Amino acid sequence: MSAIPTTTPHSISQPEPLRKSRLYWTIADTLVIVKRQLIHTRRIPMELVGFAIMPIMFVVLFRYVFAGAINVGNGMSYVNFLMAGIFVQSLAFSAPHTGITLTQDLQKGLIDRFRSLPMAHSAYLTGRIIADVIKNGFAVAVMVIVGLAVGFRPEAGLLGWLGAIGVMLFFAFAMCWLGAMIALLVRSPESVDQMLFTALFPLTFASSAFVPASSMPGWLQVFVNHQPVTLVVNTVRGLLLDMPVGNDGWMALAWCVAILVICVPVAVSLYQRATSR
Amino acid sequence: MAISQTMVRAEGLVKRFGKVEALSGLNIAVEQGTILGILGPNGAGKSTLVNILTTLMRPDGGRAEVAGLDVVREADKLRARIGLSGQYAAVDEYLTGRENLEMFGRLYHLSGRVARQQADALLERFDLVDAGKRPVRTYSGGMRRRLDLAASLIIEPPVLFLDEPTTGLDPRSRMAMWAMIRELVTGGTTLLLTTQYLDEADHLADRIAVVDHGRVIAEGTTGELKSQIGGDRLELTVAGTGDLDAAIHAVSSHSRGDMQIDPERRSISAPVINGPGLLTAIVRDLDVAGVPVDDLALRRPTLDEVFLALTGHAAETGAAAREAEKEAV
Fold this sequence. Notes:
The structure holds two protein chains of two kinds.
Chain A: H1 22-43, H2 45-66, H3 78-92, H4 94-107, H5 110-116, H6 123-149, H7 158-186, H8 189-205, H9 218-224, H10 228-240, H11 248-271
Helix pairs in contact in A: 1-2, 1-6, 2-3, 2-6, 3-6, 3-7, 3-10, 4-7, 4-8, 6-7, 7-8, 7-10, 7-11, 10-11
Chain B: E1 6-17, E2 20-31, E3 35-39, H1 46-53, E4 61-66, E5 69-70, H2 75-78, E6 82-85, H3 97-107, H4 112-125, H5 141-151, E7 159-163, H6 171-186, E8 190-195, H7 198-204, E9 207-212, E10 215-220, H8 222-228, E11 232-238, H9 244-252, E12 260-262, E13 267-272, H10 278-288, E14 293-299, H11 303-311, H12 319-328
Parallel strand pairs in B: 3-8, 3-9, 6-7, 7-8
Antiparallel strand pairs in B: 1-2, 1-4, 4-5, 9-10, 11-13, 11-14, 12-13
Helix pairs in contact in B: 3-4
């Protein structure tokens, strides 16, 4: 066996890469990916419309079709009750969006290329998820405006709003990581779609998003009162309507942290082994 | 001149996917500034090899070094020294050509200014200056491949991997791609290229490694591989079907093995040892036998035939290949 050279020859003049710390590159690489994702949004305006259109339909549907039949008690108007549910439902459904677009990158070989580059390992996933959270923030802003137009009258002060927005974006962040992890596990857009929709429908409808949990049969309440969508909805609702949040706030955050603790390391490790074939 | 250095070396590479062994003890070496063509059919293990050498997969056994760096232990360092262009034209559909190159430049950790300079230079070089302003989804297949190749050259890497660079391209785009690839190596780049097109390996590669079932079954220059399965072949087509028997008789004394006869095409293919006066002697014999000839040629074996002789099965499936396989048995 002949000796393997330990130094690299410099017969070709390579353009000189910058020398910066690991942390610098983790942030810089992530921002490059965020920029890529946001350029996508600019080039495919329909994507953003899609983000906002379903929730708007839900607002109108529940506000005008179901509101008369649903009594939420406490003298609260249904539209005030409803909006937090609409926000959180739309954020939960950002998971399939992240997952589906990620499998497309995988199938097109783009993830192969990213992985062959000297970029930070977490940058691709973090970058695209930050961009998805930004898009979700936009969708929530649109929904707030639509809500105000149909009679939504939040009573929160600045702190309440900041808290509600913080909880919502944190929840969206966790859901996008969940979507990314599922995508890297099942690898096809169809399977991601099926799996996440199957999981998200019961989670969003068997929750306090559209009707009070107390109106449901006792056995169902056990599930409803402990699952993340309900807890996040209750927290956001409480903060926006200036009502006590109680333990639901901590439980909601605990759920988001738990989702991240599982999904982030699994997704990053799957990503580092993912190839298009 | 610099002493030639081995820029890619794989020793006993093994990779398993479940029970399937994609690579079973593969060895290769590529010297600096040369092109090694990895030739093999679908599923031979070519892409797995490229995936391991470009740090996308870890081998289950054996080891590999690229540009002097271990592909597993020094993967992070190695990624700054290689370029990869896969068979999918892995560029972003919604970004413009220029935005793509700039993005990959930044991810190779070039400064914004250098990344933009490199992007502009590459668009120029690959004839994509105007297209560079448009989103990639408006590009033709050939343009995408060119952009993909350009993306792999942003840092002018000392070692470049091209995984089936012309699969799915029309013949004209393919020729253009070949010209560009050949130009690269004159700049000193070391290139490993996989292909299932025999003519591609023949045109581009300095050396060819024939891969089948995860191992190298033959390696050498095109000439060496061709001579490995014997000498030249005489190809003869007679004017009328009735002339075939007389022609077979006339040629048989020069043939060094089994002749292949195709009555439909009125043609004979015979292995011969080329030497001075061979063709003249054959023409004379045919003339004496009074056989009118449509076409007569002496040719070196194609890589198709090399592949067939080495693997016992054809490089590509299909009626023609199965036919060839039957004849070879």
